[in-house]
Amino acid sequence: MTSNTLEIKQLNIEDLSKDILESDSAGSIKELIQNNSSTKSFGWVGNDLEDTLANLDSFSCDCDYCCGDVVAPDSDFTNTNNNLLDTSDTSLFAAASGDVTTVNYSGKNSIDSLIYPAKWTSKTITYSFYDGGSYYDSSRQGKVSEISNKIKDYLRNILKSFENYVDLKFVEVSDEGGNYGQIRYMNYTGTSSGSTKVPYKYQTSPLAGDVYLSPKIKSQFEEGPGAYRYETLIHETLHALNLKHPGNYNGSSTGGQSGEFLPNGDDNSNNSILSYNRFRNNSDYSGTITAMPYDIRALQYLYGVADYQQGDTIYKFDKIDQYYIGNDFFGNKDFNAKQALWDRAGVDTFDLTGLGSNNSGYIVDLREGGLVTAKNLYNTSSYKARGDGKRYNATSRGTFLAYDMTIENVISSGSNDYITANKGANTFSGYTKGGIFGDDRIFNSDSQDKIDLSSFKVSDFTTSQSGDDYVLDFGASGSIKIKGYYTAPESDRIQILTASGDPTPPDSTPTPPDPTPTPTPTDVALVWEDLGFADESAVATGSKLNLGNGVTATVNWQIITDGGSFTPHAGEDYVSFESGKTGNHTGYLSLGFNNSEDDPNDLIKLSLDFGKAVTGLTFKVLDVDQSAGKTFDDGVEIYVNNEVNVKSLSGVEITTGDNVFADNETYMDGFEGRGNAGANNSSEGGNINLNFGSTEVSSLEIRYFSTDDAIANPGSQKIGLSDLFFQVKS
Questions:
Q1: In the Cβ-directed half-sphere of 405, how many Cα atoms lie within 13 Å?
Q2: On the chain, which terminus has fewer CB atoms closer than 10 Å, C or N?
Q3: Which of these, 694, 702, 620, lies nearest to 650 by C-alpha position?
Q4: Cα angle for residues 159, 163, 168 (degrees, 5° grid)
Q5: What digits encode the pLDDT tens for the residues 308-325?
């Protein structure tokens, strides 16, 4: 043995791993180690316990430290006597060290948060399935075994699917004697579900690329595509290709990992199957059956791009998570699913005519990382992020688009489609005279794009202007609303092709330019109904809304309580989108709570932070009143620009309904419902109208209080925030 190798002191792995596996949390590892008499000399020579724990870098999914595998990150693997094997003796096994090449990081967070800076060197990667013979790590001999034929077939299919994205070939080789693949699959009783020896961390060891599956959950692995453990098979295989978790976690531990990480709001299975935020226990859970867009982009960065689907491809959808290319089916007919697709080149089409009728309609986002899904599923599933513990939303089902690809065309469904154009030349069709095609909305279009109305003459439909939008109305057949049409120069507007020429948009006659033009404000609106929310869908705190013209609005909310029984209304959706009617307004952002007769200082605080200052801001706070025949009322404070109460601002026009009055309590300085007046929620009587005129507003905050008649408050209360209208400087 060489003199500079590290020596690992005696450690009772079996006893320690048993205790850890039976513990409630990986956070108890330190205590277990300190209290276990067999581990008093635990650690690498020269390191104390604190240093050892700090340096247990993660290099196996499901945390090998929690599964009984303790290996020095920079050393070779050990045998049963905890002596280092000399990996320079190639007669012992086929060494992996020459198979791995170091790579540079990309400089893009969405890639670098998913890769270890290394890759398999060859474009051909071999794989095998352990056949039950001798195993080079004798400490695991008798604990490793052959996986079932059904699981083998699933893994073959997964590797084959990767060839559609990446410039790699996966070749199965025999697994007997001294032969085995670079990636090697087997059962191992020492892992709780699955774990992988990442090649980057095991470059000098034959363990590199070994994937361990727990035989205790064999039946779960055999459930196949759409089941949670099929995700695990993809997840672990990606680790064997040098991809890592995108968050600061590993196994049951959180924190202490190295590398870049995704923002918590992006760390979910919309983007990566390597994320731990995968809806496993969510009632809307749908199994992820492919690598996802960030995974594909990371693999392509490491290994290059596959020449796949280079021709003009038609993707014919019969469900949002199922499509055909010719006779080839993609999806899973037995489970709802999430999947990703990648297309190399050509002029490609999404044909949605096979999608069934959907009352909420469909979302088709053609941009990189976009998706095809139903509107009532879009970002409506909540998860608690493993990183910061806050709740975020993602989409539970659909087909997602990889990066560095372009789908050019969409044939619309018969339902209401929200279609977002990409940077390519898009053609939107499916609009035939006498057909039913729903009320569609087209976003992000420009002069490269076309709407194919070739079966219509201009006289067959009417046109109108609605704010910044251009509306084509086909009567009973449906309509098309082109969002933001009038905010674009005429030379950069979408083309509308009919059998009798282009229709002339209303008010489209150009105005002669002012010889000395001055910037003019542009009208912008935050219309809740236009954001694709389903009725009663929760709005995650931190949600960033892009409103066009360089304006964003970030929605944040929090509960402020002194620890009493004040609780959110209906669980976690105490800030949600409501499509019903209140305060004589349809479609609003709702704040709701169950007061539980708690004290009046408790409140919900909702803030909207604009990406740039706006002027001319107008909106309504809806249904602030006292209910007829009751003795409780609503209490609201309204602030702008970092804690400035609107009641103290000059130049702000505040108009209250008959059932609202300004009030100054000890706990609030705002507005309350007028006692004994009574208002019903379809009237204007409980509304507060605000117009900020020329005042620049960078943030808006609504505080909804329990009020001082807390003991009389009902089980749930709601007020709403209507659409916001404002202007920004061009």
A1: 34
A2: N
A3: 694
A4: 100
A5: 888 899 999 999 999 999
pTM: 0.62
Q: Which fold has domain 72-254?
A: Collagenase (Catalytic Domain) (3.40.390)
684 pLDDT band (50/70/90 cuts)? Answer: confident
* Secondary structure in 3-state letters for 606-645: EEEEEEEEEEEEEEEEECCCECCCCCCECEEEEEECCCEE
Nearest to 555 by CA among 594, 528, 529, 523: 528
> Does residue 386 contact residue 249 with C-beta atoms inside 8 Å?
yes
**Confidence class of residue 484 from pLDDT cuts 50, 70 and 90?**
very high
> Cα angle vertex 620, ends 619, 623, to 5°?
165
The residue written with tokens 């040098």 in the block is 242
HSE-up of residue 525 (Cα within 13 Å, Cβ side): 14
Residue 374 confidence (pLDDT): 93
CA dihedral 569, 573, 578, 582 (to 10 degrees): 20
pLDDT tens digit sequence for 693-716: 888 888 899 988 878 776 677 667
What the block records as the tokens of 25 is 């949390």
Cα 330 from Cα 308, distance rounded (Å):
15
Helix axes 228-240 and 149-162, enclosed angle (nearest 10): 60
Are β-strands 438-443 and 478-482 bridged in parallel, bridged antiparallel, or unpaired? Answer: parallel
Angle at 484 between CA 480 and CA 487, to 5 degrees: 140
Neighbours of 82 (CB within 10 A): 14
* CA angle, 564 then 566 then 567, to 5°: 130
Checking DSSP bridges between strand 450-453 and strand 427-429, what pairing results, if any? parallel
Q: Is the dihedral of CA 332, 335, 341, 347 positive or negative?
A: positive
CA distances from residue 368 to 304, 340, 440 in whole angstroms, order as listed: 18, 11, 21
Domain with CATH 2.60.120 in the chain: 523-729
Rounded distance between C-alpha atoms, residue 364 and residue 519, angstroms: 35
Tokens of 186: 């087997």
Element (H, E) at 495: strand 495-498
Inter-residue contact 378 to 317 (CB < 8 Å)? no
Q: Are 372 and 434 in contact (CB under 8 A)?
A: no
| pLDDT single digits (tens) 401-441 | 999 999 999 999 999 999 999 999 999 999 999 999 999 99
**The residue to which tokens 């983007």 are assigned:** 271
Question: Which of the 8 DSSP states describes residue 135?
Answer: -
Cα separations in angstroms, 240 against 119, 144, 635 = 10, 18, 57
- The gap from C-alpha 163 to its chain's centroid, in whole angstroms, comes to 25
Looking at the DSSP bridge assignments, the partners of residue 610 are: 553
Residue spans in the chain of domains classed CATH 3.40.390.10: 72-254
Q: Of 712, 707, 719, 717, whose CA–CA distance to 601 is shortest?
A: 707
Tokens of 602: 């408790």
What percentage of the chain reaches a pLDDT higher than 90?
43
Distance in angstroms (rounded) separating the CA atoms of residues 705 and 695: 26
The residues with which 149 forms a beta bridge, in sequence order, are none
Which residues touch 3 (CB under 8 Å, ≥6 apart)? none
CA 654 to the chain's CA centroid:
39
670 and 728 Cβ atoms separated by less than 8 Å: no
Architecture in CATH for domain 523-729: Sandwich (2.60)
Integer CA distances (angstroms), 217 to 185, 193, 239, 632, in order = 15, 7, 20, 55
Amino acid 474 reads F
- Asked whether 643 and 585 are in contact (CB, 8 A), the reply is no
